[in-house]
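As the next step, I selected for study one protein, both as residues and as discrete backbone shape codes, as given directly below:
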Amino acid sequence: MSELLPPTPGQTVGPFFGYALPYARGNELVEPGTPGAVRLHGTVYDGAGAPVPDALIEIWQTDPAGKVVARSGSLLRDGTFTGWGRAETDREGGYWFRTLNPGATEPGRAPFFVVTVFARGLQDRLFTRAYLPDATTDDVVALIPGPLENDPLLASLEPERRATLVTAREPDGSLRFDIRLQGERETVFLTYDEGPAAGKDGVGA
């Protein structure tokens, strides 16, 4: 052939998060009606602000007393709280978990969920945190004195960037945490020196 053909554009296969990874009730860390149960929910957005319908979200957390739970049973829910859950996003990019409010790992520290994001276009998973809002204010940008202000990670960020790591308490008591992969108000993502275990501070934004 004397005619030169243009190269075929590069393509990726997948992601196939809908196969094998999701499992029944993976987003339900506690049973309905459990005392202290809270709904953590939000939407995953891409760089253009469009919802991502095929992402997978994992959370890792302490129990309400601030203890890292080291127990098996996450894949087969039997009433055991393990502090780990997995949820896939729906067609509108939404996800939700039924869980418990995490406790602080140390007195005066801010409680948080460790959040892992798998999504199309990512070469590897992303890590971030979803902090509980201070009980004294809904203004996550101002962050008046309290556990949030004393957190080393949040203190290292500009106020506007800190706000992307703090959940919003909804009128019904649920926690909203939207995840923006790129663009305006992009969520702060972290790298871990010692692994993403709850309670460790070996992180970098």
